């Protein structure tokens, strides 16, 4: 099937994936752009899983204070190279994640960080994870995505390990 350049451009604008990855995804999904987006996200998460073991010694500390100066976040997101750490898209991701933490107030980064005692007595563990684990939360800017999806897209784009390492949320009176 011949894929039009306009369709490739549209998918690239939606996902920031490379032109060749967009073309492959569109060919595999017979030109269905929504299926191609899902396929690219899936590939991004698979790549993120493969890259997870690689060392991430560079990165960025993001500080965000919400207007009104009542709540703020310090966030560390690590990557493998300083080239990625200085990239505008990476910087925007760290800012978005910091705003997510201010808005939704997660307790843990991932499911693996949740101690077994915290799950004792929880009837709906999946709901607990969605409410308390940053990576499982719906992204406030696009609720159809999770933070994990956004992270996977970034890993796929830069082809290197990116890790949300730690965060601290501060709120007046807490």
Layout: helices, strands, pairs:
Blueprint: H1 5-15, H2 19-28, H3 33-51, E1 58-65, E2 71-79, H4 82-85, H5 88-104, H6 116-119, H7 125-132, E3 138-139, E4 142-146, H8 147-158, E5 163-171
Antiparallel strand pairs: 1-2, 2-5, 3-4
Helix pairs in contact: 1-2, 1-3, 2-3, 3-8, 5-8
Can you walk through the features of this model?
With 174 residues, the protein is α+β, with helices and mostly antiparallel strands. It has eight helices and five strands, in the order H-H-H-E-E-H-H-H-H-E-E-H-E. It has a three-stranded antiparallel sheet. A two-stranded antiparallel ribbon has the order 3-4. Helix 1 crosses helix 2, helix 1 crosses helix 3 and helix 5 runs antiparallel to helix 8. The longest helix has 19 residues. The chain is globular, with a radius of gyration of 18 Å. The mean pLDDT is 88.
Number of helices: 8
Q: What kind of sheet is the major sheet?
A: 3 strands, antiparallel
Large-scale geometry: globular
Specify the CATH architecture of the largest domain: 2-Layer Sandwich
Count of structural domains:
2
Decide which structural class fits the backbone: alpha+beta
Q: How many β-strand stretches?
A: 5
**How are the strands of the biggest sheet laid out side by side?**
1-2-5
CATH topology of the largest domain: Tetrahydropterin Synthase, Chain A
The value of Rg in angstroms is 18 Å
CATH class placement of the largest domain: Alpha Beta
Proportion in β-strands: 15-25%
